[in-house]
Each structure stands twice: as structure tokens, then as C-alpha cells.
DNA sequence: CTAGGGTTAG
């Protein structure tokens, strides 16, 4: 309450809403109402309907005005009317509207002249959003002459407002003879639920003109509206009023304030308000939990959830779902299981929302078996969202094959495919990467007219990029009407990954011209292009301009990229200097490219130094020993080599999710994949050594790259073993070349592979070979 | 006539 207690006086003083009797805002003119895009002609249909009813019961409809007092002659009509017959006709009309099940709504015993009944029916329509039936009842209201009655008219306003026909609501409201706070509330609430905050505020301010005082209903409505549209100033002002008028004691008003602050992300205000509530209920607790959850303060959300239970409040489906998701997000396995168990016990686990949340939790915990099992148990309840969650889970957990299988199964089960599905499936294609599958999905996307979705389009660009089909990627990009930063980044990245430095830069310039501000990812792509093309000077300039010209703060990944840029090009001292000047403490990831550079440029002394820095930070990194042992081999220090090999074998290879499999001579080997810095098991290294004699792999970068750690494996459509792929992003397309000569020293594939036409050739005319020349010239084996 | 609210994608 601190905020309120101290500030409301100040706020109230100059609030435009401060006095309800003072009218600073002009009341809404008809012109203004028209400006909202409101149609006033909707009632025509009702007359038609009314005429239809009238014809059938053979009475004339005398009234033409909608909202005027009932006159004597109309009363006469009512007296003559066979209301049972009208009831029957309404029943038929409802059926014609396709309304079958309206339990308790229409029955013969009703007295249709009973005002309360009609109001009940109208509020039923409001709740259900049933405009068609609502209009029929409006017709009945006119027929029976109830229009003009304040309560009936208010019910009509409410009905139209809730059913989304706000123009008709305004029309009825305007025609009302006397207006009270309830009619205003209905209309304001209608504006807010139709996302017309300004109009709601206008009418709220207008109440004062008629000397109608807003009540606690009004404040609840308005406060909730402020929360939805992020109207912070108005919200705080309303809070001040509420304090002044002592409405806070009302639980509903307090809860709406609480929710509003949660939506604003002002959790401190929300918490203090929450603490001050004398009577908390489930809504109050849910608001706080949901607020924390939305702020991604998952631990706090979970804590709040436990507190809620401690205070004896029974969690419902919603609170349980948020608790579940929180467990997934912060990897709380045990609590996750416990919550799942509770949901099963309560019989909620197979509901669509909760069930999906369970699937999602297990994918976040990396337990894909459980996720799949949960989906199976949901059976036909499983929605597209549930399937999407599963597929996304497989993609995140690097099981691409399973992701595509799940996608296939989803199709077989006639689950409707949506944009999320496309995006996920395409992501799987790019990790594979499989051009043919990407194309198939693209066809599907076109058939479903989903190309306009930015997520889908970006995924397509990425997939084509990863599959090496840059023309397709560009075509997809060109078809986007308003590309956003992500779509731009996808295209820049695609060109960058394939070594098209100039193209990446020209795209970068183009996006700036078109008013899209480059992001961290954009710079990462451009810097990476510089690094792979050996363009040290250009890279340095881009790095400088990041912060200076585009105010993008460099992150660890950018630093890695810069170290890589220096190291690849042999500027090892510059790399070291760069690391030492960093504003952050250098991480292992920042040191690693320098170690690779030392290996490639044969600087053993610096290599040892860097290796020690990495091992200080990540003592279990076996790959450091691999590199060192190779460097000792190069200089003939076999004793040191053996030592490193021993150390390497001693160190446990981390057991992380994300493997690839490779089949060689009917035996399956398991590899870590997806992370180029992951060390493989010693068994894998042995295998790779054997394979090196049979298969040569090339990527767009191997020709340029640092070479021959032989530790990287990518899962392509066929087997792929990569050499020299340090710092290559996961999923970079690779092709397999058989019997290609490589540089005997650094295993760099040689330029003349482009002559081997029967295999797919990745080398392009404008491809740069800076590194290749340096590396292989220095080893003297330049053919 | 009023307050709360969960799951998926670039």
C-alpha cells in the first residue's frame, strides 16, 4: 500500500479523472462515435426478423422507433398477442439460427410478458455471446413494448456489447430515456472487451456530466481495462480514486488492482497490495502467481503456489498449470512429478490445457519418453498445441528424427497442422538438414496459405539457408511484405554461413536503409562472415560500430567471434590482447577459438597457456587435451602427447542430451552432436581416425577453417563426419565427398574438389581462400 | 453491470 498511501493525494490533485462532476472531456458526439467505425444500421435485420414473427402471428408491428416509451396502442397490441405462439416462433427462430442446446432457456411455461424473464434471456445471450438469439429477443422486446424500460434496455446494451456489436450497444444506450451507473458500466465494459480503451475512458469521464457516480463495478471494469492495454498512468489514477472513495475494501476491486499491477509488471506494488489485503481469495493468489509466472520469475511463482496451499487454498487447473510450467522452466524434477501425480489424482491430467502443459514440462525436463507417453494418454484430446509442444521438444532436445516422426504421426492422426507446426517441422529440416523435406513442407505451407506468417517465413529462410539453397531462401524473403528483424537476420545468417561476405554486408546495409535496426544476431552473422573470410579489418570495424552506431551491446558470442577472427587469420597476439581487454571475465568459450588458432598456426607456447586458461574454467573439457596432444605430435614431443592422451581418457565425457548416431559396418556408434565444442568419447576419436582414410567431408567452411581436431560430427541425411569445424554453428550443411585429397597436414580439403563434378560441389566462384592459402602454404603441401 | 487465467513456433 505504500504507493497508494503516499501518492494518491498528489495524483488526485491533477488527474483528468479527478472529479466526476467536472467535465474536462467533451461528451462523445455522434461524429466521434461514427469515427469508431460503428455502424448504426444493424437494427434493420431485427426489424426483418420482427416482421417475420409478426407475419406468422398475424399482428402488425406498430413500432418503428427502438427506444421510446411504450404507448397505449402498443400495450393494446401486447394484450391481443398470443404470447405462447410468439414463444413457439422464437423457439423455431432460435433453431433456424442453429441454436439447439439452450438448457432452461426456452420453455413453454414462460410468461413472455414477464420482464424478468426477458432480462434473464438477454443476460444468457450476453454470457454465451449469442448475438443471433439476442437479436430475436430484442425483437421481442420491441414487440412487447418493453423498450424504454431501464433494466431491459441495460440488458440490451450489455447483450450487444458482450456480443461484439458495440455500435448497436451505443445506439440502444443513446436512445435510453434514463441512464444510470449500471447502463454506463455495461457500455464501458463493452468498449473494453472490444479493445476500445479510449472510448471506455471517454464514457467514464462523461459520467460526471450526468452526475452519475462511478461505483465499485465501474472501477473494477476500468482498472481491469487499464491492465489489458498497459495504461499505467490511468491505472494509477484510478487506484488513487479507489483509495479515496474507499472502494479498496471491496475484494473485487482490490483483486482487479492486483491483477492490473501484475500485468504492468509492477510486482512490488502488486506484492505490497497483496500483503495488505484483509481477505485474500483464490483470485488474489492466482493473480500474483500468474504475474510472477509472466515475469518468468518461476521460482517465486512456485513459492507463491506453495504458500497458497499452505494458507489452505485449493489450487485449480490454472494455478496447477502454471506451477507445472514453472517446474519445467527451472528443472525441478521432483516437484514436477508430484504435480503431475496430483493432476492425475484429480482427474485433470488429460484435459487439453493441463495435458499440454504436462507434455511441455517433460520436454523442458528433457524427458521425451514421458512427454510422448503423456501425449498418448491424452488420446484424441491432444490438440495441435499438444503435438506442437512435443515436436518442439524433440527439436530442442536435438532428436531431429523423432521430431519429424512425430510430425508425420500428427498428420496421420488428422490433427490439424498450423503455423507452429510448420515452424517446428522446418526447424527440424534445417537441423538435419534436408532440402527435399524442406521443399515438401514449403509446398504444404503454400497450400495452407501460411507463407504470410513471419515465423513460418523465417523458418523457411533458415531451412533453405541451412540446406544450402540460398536462392530459395531469398525468394521466400522477397515475398514477405514486412520483414522484421528476425527475417532479416535469417537471410543475413544464411549468406554469412555460406561465406558470402559481400552479400551479407549489403543485406546489412539494406536493412538499415529500410529502417530495421540491426540486432546482436545480425552482428554475429556479419562478424562470423568476416571471420570465415579472413577479413580482419572489416570485422574490427563492424565490431566497433556495433555499440557506437547501433547501440547494440556486444555479448559473449560476439567476443568469441572476434577472438576467432583474429585467431583464424593468425593474429594470435591481437586475439590475446583482445581477450585481456574484455570488459567481462573471459569464459572458456572465448578462449577456445584462440586455442584452435594456436594449433593451426603452430604456436605451442601460447597454446599451452590458453589450454591452461580453459582448463581452469572447465576442468573436464577433454577436447583441450586432444588439441594439445596433437600439437605435441606436430613438434615430436611424444612423451607429452601420451600424457595428454591419458588425461583425456581420464576425464569423463559429459552426459548431455543430444546425440547423433553413426553406422559403420553394421555397428552403431553414438556421438554427441549439435555442439561443436563437445568432446567425444575416446572410442569416437578412434573411429574417426579410421574413417578419415575412407571419407572426406567438406563443408562450406572446412576449406577455410581451422582443421583436423576430428571431433565434430554432424547428422546429415547421410553420415557426416566433419573435420576442422571449430565454431561452426550446429546444423551447418555438410556434404560428403569420397576420395578427395586433403592437405596431409591440416586436412583442409583442397580447392580442386570443385573439379569432381559427380558430387555436389559447394565451392563457389567468389569463395575466399585466405585461410586455406595461409594454412597450406605454411605446411608446404600445396597442390 | 464487476476481478483471475495456463500450453506451442522464427
From TrEMBL:
Repeat as UniProt keyword = yes
Name the SUPFAM superfamilies for this protein. Answer: TPR-like
Question: Would I find Secreted among this entry's keywords?
Answer: no
* Chain positions of PPR repeats: 180-214, 281-315, 383-417, 484-518
Q: Which BP terms in the Gene Ontology apply to this protein? A: RNA modification
- Domain of life, source organism: Eukaryota
An example of a GO molecular function for this protein is: zinc ion binding
Domain DYW span(s) in chain numbering = 712-783
Keywords assigned? Repeat
Name the family: Belongs to the PPR family. PCMP-H subfamily.
Q: Know the name of this protein?
A: DYW domain-containing protein
Give the species: Coffea canephora (Robusta coffee)
**Source taxonomy lineage?**
Eukaryota, Viridiplantae, Streptophyta, Embryophyta, Tracheophyta
Amino acid at each position: 500500500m505504500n504507493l497508494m498511501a503516499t501518492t494518491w493525494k498528489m495524483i488526485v490533485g491533477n488527474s483528468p479523472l479527478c472529479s466526476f462532476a467536472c467535465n474536462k472531456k467533451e461528451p462523445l458526439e455522434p461524429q466521434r462515435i461514427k469515427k469508431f467505425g460503428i455502424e448504426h444500421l444493424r437494427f434493420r435485420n431485427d426489424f426483418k426478423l420482427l416482421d417475420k414473427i409478426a407475419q406468422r402471428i398475424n399482428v402488425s408491428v406498430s413500432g418503428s422507433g427502438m427506444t421510446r416509451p411504450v404507448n397505449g396502442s402498443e400495450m393494446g397490441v401486447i394484450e391481443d398477442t398470443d404470447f405462447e405462439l410468439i414463444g413457439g416462433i422464437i423457439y423455431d427462430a432460435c433453431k433456424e439460427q442453429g441454436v439447439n442446446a439452450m438448457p432452461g432457456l426456452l420453455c413453454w411455461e414462460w410468461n413472455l410478458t414477464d420482464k424478468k424473464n426477458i432480462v434473464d434471456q438477454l443476460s444468457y445471450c450476453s454470457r454465451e455471446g449469442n448475438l443471433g438469439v439476442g437479436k430475436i429477443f430484442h425483437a421481442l422486446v420491441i414487440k412487447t413494448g418493453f423498450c424504454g424500460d431501464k433494466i431491459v434496455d441495460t440488458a440490451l446494451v450489455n447483450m450487444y456489447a458482450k456480443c461484439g456489436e458495440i455500435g448497436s450497444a451505443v445506439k440502444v444506450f443513446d436512445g435510453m430515456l434514463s441512464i444510470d451507473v449500471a447502463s454506463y458500466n455495461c457500455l464501458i465494459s463493452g468498449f473494453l472487451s472490444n479493445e476500445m480503451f479510449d472510448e471506455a475512458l471517454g464514457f467514464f469521464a462523461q459520467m460526471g456530466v450526468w452526475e452519475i457516480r462511478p461505483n465499485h463495478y465501474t472501477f473494477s471494469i476500468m482498472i481491469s481495462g487499464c491492465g489489458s492495454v498497459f495504461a499505467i498512468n490511468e491505472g494509477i489514477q484510478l487506484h488513487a480514486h479507489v483509495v479515496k472513495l474507499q472502494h479498496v475494501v471491496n475484494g473485487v476491486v482490490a483483486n482487479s488492482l492486483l491483477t492490473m499491477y501484475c500485468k504492468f509488471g509492477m510486482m512490488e506494488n502488486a506484492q505490497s497490495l497483496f500483503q495488505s489485503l484483509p481477505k485474500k481469495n483464490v483470485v488474489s493468489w492466482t493473480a500474483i502467481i500468474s504475474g510472477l509466472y509472466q515475469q518468468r520469475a518461476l521460482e517465486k511463482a512456485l513459492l507463491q503456489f506453495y504458500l497458497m496451499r499452505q494458507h489452505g487454498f485449493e489450487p485449480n487447473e490454472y494455478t496447477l498449470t502454471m506451477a507445472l510450467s514453472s517446474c519445467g522452466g527451472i528443472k525441478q524434477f521432483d516437484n514436477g512429478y508430484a504435480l503431475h501425480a496430483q493432476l492425475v489424482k484429480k482427474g485433470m491430467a488429460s484435459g487439453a490445457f493441463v495435458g499440454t502443459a504436462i507434455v511441455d514440462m517433460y520436454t523442458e525436463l528433457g524427458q521425451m519418453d514421458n512427454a510422448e507417453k503423456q501425449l498418448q494418454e491424452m488420446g484424441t484430446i491432444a490438440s495441435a498445441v499438444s503435438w506442437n509442444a512435443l515436436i518442439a521438444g524433440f527439436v530442442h532436445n536435438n532428436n531431429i528424427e523423432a521430431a519429424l516422426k512425430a510430425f508425420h504421426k500428427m498428420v496421420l492422426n488428422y490433427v490439424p497442422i498450423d503455423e507452429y507446426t510448420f515452424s517446428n517441422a522446418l526447424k527440424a529440416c534445417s537441423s538435419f538438414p534436408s532440402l527435399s523435406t524442406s521443399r515438401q513442407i514449403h509446398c504444404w505451407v503454400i497450400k495452407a496459405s501460411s507463407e504470410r506468417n513471419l515465423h513460418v517465413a523465417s523458418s523457411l529462410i533458415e531451412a533453405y539457408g541451412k540446406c544450402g539453397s540460398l536462392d530459395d531462401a531469398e525468394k521466400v524473403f522477397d515475398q514477405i511484405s514486412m520483414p522484421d528483424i528476425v527475417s532479416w537476420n535469417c537471410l543475413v545468417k544464411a549468406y554469412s554461413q555460406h561465406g558470402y561476405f559481400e552479400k551479407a554486408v549489403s543485406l546489412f546495409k539494406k536493412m538499415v536503409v529500410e529502417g530495421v535496426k540491426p540486432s546482436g544476431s545480425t552482428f554475429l552473422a556479419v562478424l562470423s562472415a568476416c571471420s570465415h573470410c579472413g577479413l580482419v579489418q572489416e570485422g574490427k570495424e563492424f565490431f566497433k560500430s556495433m555499440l557506437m552506431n547501433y547501440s547494440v551491446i556486444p555479448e559473449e558470442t560476439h567476443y568469441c567471434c572476434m577472438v576467432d577472427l583474429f585467431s583464424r587469420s593468425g593474429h594470435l597476439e591481437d586475439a590475446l590482447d583482445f581477450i585481456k581487454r574484455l570488459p567481462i571475465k573471459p569464459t572458456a568459450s572465448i578462449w577456445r577459438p584462440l586455442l584452435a588458432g594456436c594449433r593451426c598456426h603452430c604456436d605451442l607456447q601460447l597454446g599451452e597457456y590458453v589450454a591452461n586458461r580453459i582448463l581452469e574454467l572447465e576442468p573436464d573439457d577433454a577436447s583441450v587435451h586432444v588439441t594439445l596432444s596433437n600439437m605435441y605430435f606436430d613438434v615430436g614431443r611424444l612423451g607429452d602427447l601420451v600424457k595428454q592422451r591419458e588425461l583425456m581418457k581420464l576425464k569423463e565425457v559429459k552426459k548431455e542430451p543430444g546425440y547423433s548416431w553413426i553406422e559403420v559396418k553394421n555397428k552403431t556408434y553414438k556421438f554427441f552432436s549439435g555442439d561443436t565444442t563437445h568432446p567425444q568419447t575416446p572410442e569416437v576419436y578412434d573411429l574417426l581416425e579410421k574413417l578419415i582414410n575412407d571419407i572426406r567431408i567438406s563443408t562450406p567452411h572446412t576449406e577455410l577453417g581451422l582443421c583436423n581436431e576430428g571431433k565434430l560430427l554432424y547428422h546429415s541425411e547421410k553420415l557426416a563426419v566433419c573435420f576442422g569445424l571449430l565454431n561452426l554453428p550446429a546444423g551447418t550443411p555438410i556434404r560428403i565427398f569420397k576420395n578427395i585429397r586433403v592437405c596431409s597436414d591440416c586436412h583442409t580439403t583442397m580447392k580442386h574438389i570443385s573439379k569432381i563434378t559427380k558430387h555436389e560441389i559447394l565451392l563457389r566462384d567468389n569463395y575466399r581462400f585466405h585461410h586455406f592459402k595461409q594454412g597450406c602454404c605454411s605446411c608446404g603441401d600445396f597442390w
